[in-house]
Amino acid sequence: MDAQSRGQADEIDPADQWVLNPQTGNYELRLDHSTGQPPSSRPRGAGRRGAPEQGTRRTPAARDGSAAPGDAARTGSGTSRGGAARGSGGTRADAPRSGAARTASEGRAAGPLADVPGQRSRRAGKGPAADTAPAAAGRRKRKAKKSGKKKALVWTGGAVALVLVAGSVGAYAYYQHLNSNIEKIDVGNAGSGGFKKDQAVNILLIGTDKRTGSGNEGYGDAGSVGHADTTLLFHVSKDRTNATVLSIPRDLITDIPDCETKTAEGTKVVPGTSQTRFNTSLGQDGRDPGCTMRTVKELTGLTVDHFMMADFNAVKTLSTAVGGVKVCVAKDVDDPKSHLKLTKGEHIIQGEQALAFVRTRHAFGNESDLSRIETQQQFLSSMIRQMKSGDTLTNPQKLFGLAEAATKALTVDTGIGSIQKLSDLAKELAKVDPKNITFTTLPVDDNPAEIVKATVVVNEARAKPLFAMMQSDTSLTEVKKKEQAAKSKQEELLKGPKAAPEDVRVDVYNGGGPQGSAQETLAWLQNQEGVPKSTNKGNAPGADLSKTTLEYAPNQADQARALADMMGLPAAALKPGTRDAEGLEAMTLTLGADFKGAGVPITGPAKAPEGVQKVEADKQVCAK
Question: Which of 310, 411, 521, 622 is most exposed, with minimal Cβ within 10 Å?
Fold first, then answer.
């Protein structure tokens, strides 16, 4: 490019300005294409301030093809850019030189050399001419050394830039390739509008049992558009210290709200359905994943930010991409329906075998969908451990394979429908240590309306505290130190003996909670907590409290501790009196606007409700 600016660009490739010095093995920049290949021992100053250089400058007459003094005879198979001829044997025949130039070139002209143009930097040689103008030569020696460093830096910088550009072009092409793999669905306003780095994140993971598409055929129910066969709500706390993954049974009887869906013909609203199976929130009647997101919000009170949907083929490809998933079974397994065959102990499974493991309903537990959910949680926990292991994170082949498989296997909403957005989300989820990720299942009971039990209903008494824990970012593994510090004051007040539930006496007032709160609390206390000596006193006269309070006498402290423990009351709610209670006098519980429902702790539960199933992601559990 520099040659062009100097008016010397005729028939010159700018790339040829960088040439190899056969003496040093280094590339150097040559801008003067009118000179021939000089000897490396050319005296400094020759042709400039010292004696005129002989045998190196071409005369005008030489341009018509005749050889000027110092030019090589143009013979052989071709002519070099530097003016030297190349012999048929590949050796270079240098033209006769005079003086120091010829002396310095002896002993190397006959050897095989690369056919390269001349270089601008020249090494000081020996001989009479080298002694000419020693001071000037010394100065030029120092200057030449500095110039050489600059050229080396230019060459190195150019090489690095070339590598970076080539790498970025390849990375960009691969980035675009991965982007093109992603299948997206526009769910409109079903989600939150996008996750935020300083807020809790809720991702809905949907496993569909559709039988259409590559890799999904041959599992029965041919051509089915699929249902929400496996659904997990992945809740990550605001501070990224913990996560709770809530499995929602497919056979849960619930209400599905009206769903706005986008089709090729435009936007339409799919009417909601009451008291129907949860799994029909996807696929049926044209419902898209946005309908499942809306249904989960109605059920849990948590707004879903985004969804990720996978089919049968996804399980096979993702399990293979990570190099297999370690599972453990407590007994030999041979399930002819899912085709799962495993011997007792640990196994690494992938592909069809992995799909059989997560689909089996007859190999473990009571052969119900709830038992299958536990098996799936164990599988996903192990996959998380595998994905975060050094074996995967330090293996480029596995990482590229995982990226390829994931982008092809998953369908997502448009809010995370690019590699950049998925990467941003993954960085947030990756902040959670697996030891603080807990899988659990929505508490349910058999449907009392059925003689033959095929569906389930929500157990409100246990589900509401669980939802409250997720809403308040309380970990099921109790890992948040700052929450423990916040509870210290309450724990101080609650230290000491607690009365038995049957000895607790309390009058319940509604002083600002939703209508019916006092009766709801009474039923919960008597039926779930075993507090028969509780009474509904209705609305508190003239009260409109923002906070729930519990007033008690000093000699009722043990009863107050017991009730506060049941309800998750904060220390600020406890109001001890100054005189002891007499006879059968009861404590006074006044529900305020902070009351969320019977069994839902005011400040978030201190511990998970009794009977809530859990699988911790950092522990290997054998399926039974």
Answer: 622
Coil, strand or helix at 252:
strand
**How many other β-carbons are positioned within 10 Å of the β-carbon of residue 25?**
7
Q: Quick one: 429 and 493 in the same domain?
A: no
**Tally of CA atoms within 13 A in the half-sphere of 561 that contains its CB:** 15
* Cα–Cα dist 601/466, whole Å: 10
pTM to 2 decimals?
Answer: 0.60
Give the chain's count of helices (H) and strands (E): 15, 29
Phi first, then psi, for residue 355 (nearest 5°) are -65, -40
Q: Is 511 helix (H, G, I), strand (E, B) or coil?
A: coil
Q: Answer for the pair 57, 146: CB distance below 8 angstroms, yes or no.
A: no
Taking only the tens place, the pLDDT of each residue in 345-374 is 999 999 999 999 998 988 998 888 899 999
Residue pair 292/204 in contact (Cβ under 8 Å)? The answer is yes
In 10 A of CB 140, how many CB atoms? 19
Count of domains for the chain: 3
Q: Please check whether residue 238 is in contact with residue 482, taking contact to mean a CB–CB distance below 8 angstroms.
A: no
Return the biggest CA–CA distance within the chain.
Answer: 131
Q: How many whole angstroms separate alpha carbon 108 and alpha carbon 113?
A: 8
Read off the amino acid at residue 207.
Answer: G
Q: Tell me which amino acid residue 545 is.
A: L
User: 365 and 373 in contact (C-beta within 8 Å)?
Assistant: no
Residue 29 belongs to domain spanning: 2-133
Q: Flag whether pLDDT at 469 surpasses 90.
A: no
DSSP-derived 3-state class of residue 24: coil
Whether residue 437 is contained in a domain is answered as yes
Contact 341, 437 (CB under 8 A): no
Q: Rounded to whole angstroms, how far apart are CA atoms 363 and 335?
A: 6
CB 563 within 8 A of CB 504: yes
Are both 408 and 358 inside the same structural domain? yes
DSSP β-bridge partners for residue 262: 267
Taking the C-alpha atoms of residue 579 and residue 64, their distance in angstroms, rounded to an integer, is 124
Contacts of residue 339, Cβ cutoff 8 Å, sequence gap at least 6: 352, 356
